[in-house]
Specification:
Helix content is 22%, strand content 21%. β6 (69-74) and β7 form a beta hairpin. It is built from five helices and twelve strands. The strands form three sheets. A five-stranded antiparallel sheet has the order 1-3-2-12-11, with no helix packed on it. It is elongated and about 65 Å long. By secondary structure, the protein is α+β, with helices and mostly antiparallel strands.
Length: 261
């Protein structure tokens, strides 16, 4: 019988396949070790705190949470939930934000936790079988926040409205239109006159500021003569950078709760 078990230290990657196991078995592997669980009610923990998780990820990196996430099974279906602060990045740059969850798809899935200064931690998953049926230093220390970008209250409000589809974890999100930004701002911050041009000017100033400095964001600067479709891509790039650094987080959506919401 296949039982929950640690993976042997000799297993370096799941990309080339996994040992024989019943359909629905989940394998999880990181630099700090791995674990495998057959389809049964189970919660698998992963994060920086080696002594308290099944799979240690980001050991020695204080930006990774001690419990960064969980993989849960109800007996047949596996889900991943982000319990940490930093996003978990899927292939194709889709982000699982803090407090959100997503089903685990059959087959091989590499996941990434992007820390500060370009450091990235890999968590490999391999779900067996048919589709779903229904260094240790600092590991006990307090989790350090990532290096976030400074935003004024007004900038945070405008960017939260612009990025609301991302913060709600919609599939294939894009920035909302400037008209919707202005309409939503008028609803939640009625003490100021909001127009599409006003909102675009505020976001443009943020892009200009964050494209320079000691930690510049690439791909957010509008060159002379660039039209709005590319400008929308620049806003998309800006939003992704703000999400990756947790400058914007799902709890910022509370700013959209106006008197009528």
């Amino acid at each position: 019988m296949f039982v929950p078990q640690m993976l042997p230290a000799s297993m370096r990657s799941l990309a080339g396949g996994v040992p024989p196991a019943p359909p629905g078995t989940l394998f999880a592997l990181a630099a700090g070790g791995g674990f495998a669980v057959p389809p049964r009610t189970f919660t698998l923990h992963f994060g920086r705190e080696r002594d308290d998780v099944h799979v240690a990820v980001g050991v020695g990196d204080p930006h990774v949470s001690r419990l960064h996430g969980v993989l849960t099974c109800d007996g047949s279906e596996w889900w991943i939930a982000n319990r940490g602060r930093l996003p978990i990045r899927f292939p194709g740059d889709a982000l699982l934000l803090s407090g959100h969850e997503s089903p685990v798809e059959p087959g091989y899935t590499p996941l990434f936790i992007d820390s500060s200064k370009g450091r990235t931690h890999l968590l490999e998953l391999h779900l067996v079988g048919a589709p779903r049926t229904g260094p240790d230093a600092g590991q006990h220390a307090r989790t350090s926040p990532p290096d976030v970008y400074d935003l004024s209250p007004v900038e945070r409000l405008v960017l939260t409205v612009l990025a609301q589809r991302y913060l709600r974890q919609e599939r294939h999100p894009q920035p909302v239109s400037w008209k919707q930004v202005a309409d939503d701002l008028t609803r939640v911050a009625a003490g100021r006159e909001w127009t599409p041009k006003t909102a675009a000017h505020i976001v443009g100033a943020v892009r200009e500021r964050l494209s320079g400095g000691s930690d510049p964001i690439a791909g957010i600067r509008r060159e002379d003569g660039v039209g709005e479709p590319v400008g929308n891509t620049l806003n998309h790039n800006l939003i992704l950078a703000l999400l990756r650094t947790t400058t914007l987080m799902p709890e910022d959506l509370r700013l959209l709760d106006g008197d009528d919401g």
